[in-house]
């Protein structure tokens, strides 16, 4: 059904991390229900600019649910009212005429606010740099059948690999914990032979970077799983916990002990 | 950092310590409740058991061990609770829960703290107060305390908080220790709640029994 609706937006506005922020209310009239949520914000911004006011700053890039750049907590829920999708995939047909929509930034100590709805998610990069990779020698591509991977492991690793690193898990977690993000990365590589050589120090170092950034600890409330646009299961968090226990028992491995990391 | 430091300082390590000590304490509660149920049998049975425990050569080391488990569970648990509050300095305007999980998890610090207050009163009453020496009956002392409606009300109230604490705690401990299984996990989740309710109902049954028994 196509049509137009009038909505009221309550948006968090904040000039920068040092200034105090607050909610501002905007009336958006005649919003096409065909628009995506972000397109609606674009229209609101055009209007603001015409009036000589600062547009609302928000993050976005691909606008098709694959890059993990868009964010927003919409009416108390990261990435909006429907599960399994990103904010950029949310459309205005989800709303009714005269709806009031509250839009807030992702809130976490480890995601410092930059401006309005934009937060700095570089702490995820620090976690990835600490171990979210495999070291491989370059050279000829190996034969396809050299590394045998059971189907169920390949599937589970693929499910974990669906994580786009948007940070909704942190936004939704009552403790602003990034455990689901770390779990997805650790779980993906722990199940594949390529992840084997760095297995122990990966989990130890990534968790050290997680804690260092100021994320909280998981209290198993599973809010993360409920909002994850890629439906990453908390069973990966159990695997992360298992990997961590295993690494505690085995130690980080010689290489890491020598470099003194972690 | 070595393994010990990681257990002490990392977010997962701390939680795994809380999970392990918590499960051990549930084990203690089971044996404690089994002893309590001797009250239903007879005053003699209960007093003989109490006497036996009191004079057991291993009672002091056992008590020290138990106290250590409690202490570690409480100190590390509260530490995680406080650190978790700090990880989100600014709250949301619209607070919501999407997972549909009960708020028991969010209240662990509070239900745990209330249980700690109960624990202090409980140990003071039944270990340090009460009759001493030859012929002193713990049974009569417990019955005396439980016949005070205020005391019993507090006791039953504390069991409600403990039930909420354990309803999340037991299943959560398994997830934290890495147990996740397509068939087992749903069982653990239900079983944890059942054990929490059964344990606390068992403890609460004694003051209720004492109050209603008359005489
Ligand atoms: S903008 Fe790329 S996922 Fe939303």
Summarize the main sheet of chain A: 5 strands, mixed
Shape of chain B: globular
Specify the number of helices of chain A: 9
Strand order of the largest sheet of chain A: 2-1-5-3-4
**Shape call of chain A:** elongated
Q: Order of helices and strands of chain A, N to C?
A: EEHEEEEEHHHHHHHH
User: For the record, what CATH class of the largest domain in chain A applies?
Assistant: Mainly Alpha
Written overview of the protein:
Chain A has 2 domains: 4-115, Beta-grasp domain (Ubiquitin-like (UB roll)); 121-250, Fumarate Reductase Iron-sulfur Protein, Chain B, domain 2. Helix content of chain A is 35%, strand content 13%. Chain A has helices at 37-50, 122-131, 151-161, 168-172, 179-190, 199-212, 223-227, 235-250, 254-259, and strands at residues 4-13, 22-32, 73-74, 77-78, 100-104, 113-115, 118-119. In chain A, the strands form 2 sheets. Chain A has a 5-stranded mixed β-sheet. A two-stranded antiparallel sheet of chain A has the order 6-7. In chain A, β6 (113-115) and β7 (118-119) form a beta hairpin. In chain A, α3 (151-161) packs antiparallel against α5 and α5 (179-190) crosses α8 (235-250). The radius of gyration of chain A is 21 Å and the shape is elongated. Chain B is mainly α. The termini of chain B are far apart. Chain B has helices at residues 3-9, 11-36, 38-41, 43-54, 59-86, 108-128, 138-146, 149-176, 184-213. The mean pLDDT of chain B is 91. Chain B is globular. Chain B has 9 helices and no strands. Chains A and B meet through α6, α7 and α8 of A and α1, α2, α5 and α8 of B. Bound molecules: FE2/S2 (inorganic) cluster. FE2/S2 (inorganic) cluster binds next to loops of chain A.
List keywords for this structure.
heterodimer; A: 262 residues; alpha+beta; Ubiquitin-like (UB roll); Fumarate Reductase Iron-sulfur Protein, Chain B, domain 2; 2 domains; 5-stranded mixed sheet; two-stranded antiparallel sheet; 7 strands; 13% strand; elongated; disordered C terminus; B: 215 residues; mainly alpha; 9 helices; 77% helix; binds FE2/S2 (inorganic) cluster
């Amino acid at each position: 059904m196509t049509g137009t609706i009038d909505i009221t937006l309550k948006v968090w506005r904040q000039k920068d991390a040092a200034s105090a922020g607050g909610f501002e209310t905007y009336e958006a009239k005649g919003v096409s229900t065909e628009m995506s949520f972000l397109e609606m914000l674009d229209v609101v911004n055009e209007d603001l600019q015409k009036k000589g006011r600062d547009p609302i700053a928000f993050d976005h890039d691909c606008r098709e649910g694959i890059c993990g750049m868009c964010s927003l907590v919409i009416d108390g829920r990261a990435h909006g009212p429907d599960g399994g999708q990103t904010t950029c995939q949310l459309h205005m047909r989800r709303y009714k005429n005269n709806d009031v929509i509250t839009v807030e930034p992702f809130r976490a100590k480890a995601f410092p606010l930059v401006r309005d709805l934009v937060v700095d998610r570089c702490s995820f990069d620090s976690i990835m740099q600490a171990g979210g990779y495999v070291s491989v020698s370059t050279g000829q591509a190996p034969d396809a059948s050299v590394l045998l991977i059971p189907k169920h492991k390949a599937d589970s690793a693929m499910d974990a690999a669906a994580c786009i690193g948007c940070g909704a898990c942190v936004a939704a977690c009552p403790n602003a914990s990034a455990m689901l993000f770390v779990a997805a990365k650790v779980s993906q590589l722990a199940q594949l032979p390529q992840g084997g050589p760095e297995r122990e120090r990966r989990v130890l170092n990534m968790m050290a970077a997680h804690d260092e950034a100021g994320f909280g600890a998981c209290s198993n409330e599973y809010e993360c799983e409920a909002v994850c646009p890629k439906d990453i299961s908390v069973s990966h968090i159990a695997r992360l916990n298992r990997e961590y226990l295993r690494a505690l028992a085995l130690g980080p491995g010689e290489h890491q002990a020598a470099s003194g990391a972690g | 950092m070595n393994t010990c430091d990681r257990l002490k300082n990392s977010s997962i390590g701390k939680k795994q310590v809380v999970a392990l000590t918590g499960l051990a304490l549930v084990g203690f509660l089971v044996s404690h409740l089994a002893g309590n149920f001797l009250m239903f049998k007879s005053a003699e049975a209960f007093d003989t058991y109490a006497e036996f425990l009191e004079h057991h050569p291993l009672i002091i080391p056992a008590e020290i061990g138990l106290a250590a488990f409690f202490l570690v569970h409480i100190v590390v648990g509260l530490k995680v609770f406080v650190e978790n509050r700090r990880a989100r300095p600014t709250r949301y305007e619209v607070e919501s829960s999407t997972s549909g999980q009960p708020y028991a998890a969010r209240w662990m610090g509070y239900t745990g703290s209330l249980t700690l207050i109960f624990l202090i009163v409980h140990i003071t009453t039944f270990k340090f107060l009460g009759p001493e020496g030859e012929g002193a009956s713990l049974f009569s002392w417990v019955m005396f305390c439980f016949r005070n409606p205020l005391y019993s009300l507090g006791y039953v109230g504390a069991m409600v908080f403990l039930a909420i604490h354990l309803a999340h705690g037991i299943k959560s401990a398994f997830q934290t220790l890495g147990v996740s299984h397509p068939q087992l996990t749903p069982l653990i989740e239900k079983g944890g709640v059942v054990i929490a309710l059964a344990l606390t109902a068992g403890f609460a049954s004694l003051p209720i029994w004492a109050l209603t028994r008359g005489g």
